[in-house]
Amino acid sequence: MADRDQIPRRKPVPKAQNQSQTPAQPLPEGWAKDLTHQFRRTLSTKRMNELSSRPSSQRRSSSRIPTDYFVEDRQPPPLPPRHGFDASTPTPAQPTREAPPVPDAQQLLPQLPQVPPPAYSSLKNLPTLPTAPNDAKSLRFRSMLLSLSNTPCKWENPGLLDEALGAIPLQRIYEEAQEESDLFAAEAASMGSNIKPAWGYQDCVVRALMKWFKRDFFEWVNNPLCSLCRTRTLARGMAAPLPDESARGANRVELYQCANQHCQSYERFPRYNDAFVLLQTRKGRVGEWANCFSMLCRAVGSRVRWVWNAEDHVWTEVYSVHRKRWVHVDCCEEQWDAPLLYTQGWGKKLSYCIAFSADGCTDVTRRYVRNPAEYSAARSRCSEGVLMHVTREITALRRRDMDKKEKFRLNADDMREDAELRKIIIESLAFNISRLLPGGNSTRSDPDAQKAAEAAEGRQSVRSRGEGGRNQHTGPHDPRQQ
Ligand SMILES: [Zn+2]
Fold first, then answer.
1. What confidence tens digit (pLDDT) does each residue in 432-470 have?
2. What is the pTM assigned to this prediction?
């Protein structure tokens, strides 16, 4: 009985109850079986190791795994796994044959506290039910998200998009895109008749656009150079915007002074967030870059998202028609589909990554934080239920005037994305658990992780040339102005 005392939340739950809560996921059956098997083996191996390595006097005191580890505050502990994992059973039973292919992510995750090493604390980020915000903190976060959500709506302006198309060397972009998509097609053809090219023409247009944007169009500014003598300048704090700066939408202006003793003139750096103005100024830091570039992606006809990260970054996501999924695009780093750049590449911890588009709002953190144990920062701005409520609220607002058919299509896209994000997390869990197994491999052959490492290396070299400097962000904390 001592064994049983150590494992909380093992009450058996009637099968019917569990099944009714678990929608079947359209994933391969063999895969689910493997995962189940891995879970079982890990749990029982770990359990056995624990039991054999501790004196019996210590066993009782170890039953301190918090029961609210993965769930919202004030909610009851999650139900035990539907597969009936029993960590205290040294020889696990065979997976039940009638089990549907893959358990729902939310059902799977609560089992993990029983496997301490990867402490997936942030998996509590998977909410179960939307909850309306009712405390001051949640309400503040909600108004901030609502305000951020306006950014991509401002691009839905035919006059702006026309102006943008006028600024883009379209012929050059289209030619480059054609050339590259031909290469992808040839590459696929060389691998067999049924192979789909890696990327389609629309993807290649955005890739070419990004290359041009970073290399030829937009300029990165840390401290602006003195416009009189081209000497470097020193930061001198903030200044009140001049009337024409205000008129163009800058409510913050950074002030710099020329370091040349004989000049010492002042240089102003107004932080604009109007994409129209940015087409003319063509400079800034990550906020200006992501704003202007995302708008240009819209101008060339892609569905686009502006992704706000609570730490200090913003980037773009473009919907790939060819791949039927959202693709990460960071124009500052000239990175395409490298979502692990920030975590595995730069070693950053991320809390919230929220994607806003003209037709919705989605929490896409799971795309960027694959290993929450290592790379997740605390999500404390509101409860997960509230975040779910607010993202749905914004989405409903954006789709309010759409016709039924359009809404239906967008909902289908959303569901596909949700399945994709869940799969990412489950695969990541499976990988981490497999590492714990005897003889588990600790090196990862994940192409995304590989890409992130390469991207991070590339960034190092850029920074050593003095062109990067994301970390030199000095302005006050306006998320739109990073
Ligand atoms: Zn000067």
1. 788 777 776 555 556 677 777 776 666 544 443 333 333
2. 0.69
Please list, in sequence order, all residues whose beta carbon lies within 8 angstroms of the beta carbon of residue 360, skipping any fewer than 6 positions away: 394, 395, 398, 399, 410, 414
Distance CA 339, CA 341 (A): 5
CA 255 to ligand 1 center in whole angstroms: 13
- Calculate how far, in angstroms, residue 238's C-alpha sits from the geometric centre of ligand 1: 19
Whole-number Å distance, alpha carbon 285 to ligand 1 midpoint, is 22
Q: How far is CA 444 from CA 243, 344, 440, 447, 454, in A?
A: 55, 12, 11, 9, 14
Domains identified in the chain and CATH numbers: 2-116 (no CATH), 147-220+285-481 (3.10.620.30), 223-280 (2.20.25.10)
Separation between Cα atoms, residue 343 and residue 7, nearest integer Å: 33
Is the Cβ–Cβ distance between 358 and 152 less than 8 Å? Answer: yes
348 neighbors 311 (Cβ within 8 angstroms): yes
- Structure-token pair, residue 36: 């189940």
Residue 354 pairs in a beta bridge with 308, 363
- How many C-beta neighbours within 10 Å does residue 244 have? 9
Read off the pLDDT of each residue in 342-357 and give the average, rounded to a whole number.
96
261 alpha carbon to ligand 1 midpoint, in Å?
A: 8
Q: How far is the CA of 474 from the centre of ligand 1 (A)?
A: 22
Residue (of 182, 180, 186) closest to 205 by Cα position: 180
> Which residue bears the tokens 């401002």?
154
CA dihedral 17, 15, 123, 90 (to 10 degrees): 160
Look at phi and psi of residue 141 and say left if phi exceeds 0, alpha if psi is from -120 to 50, else beta.
alpha
CB 242 within 8 Å of CB 220: no
CA of 250 to the centre of ligand 1 (A): 24
The answer on pLDDT for 282 being more than 90 is yes
DSSP-based three-state secondary structure for 84: coil
Dist. CA 148–CA 146, nearest whole Å: 5
pLDDT tens-digit profile of 358-381? 999 999 999 999 888 889 999 999
Beta-carbon contacts of residue 101 (< 8 Å; ≥ 6 apart): 24, 25, 26, 27, 28, 29, 31, 32
Question: What DSSP state is assigned to residue 376?
Answer: B
In this predicted structure, the answer to whether residue 115 has a pLDDT above a threshold of 50 is: no
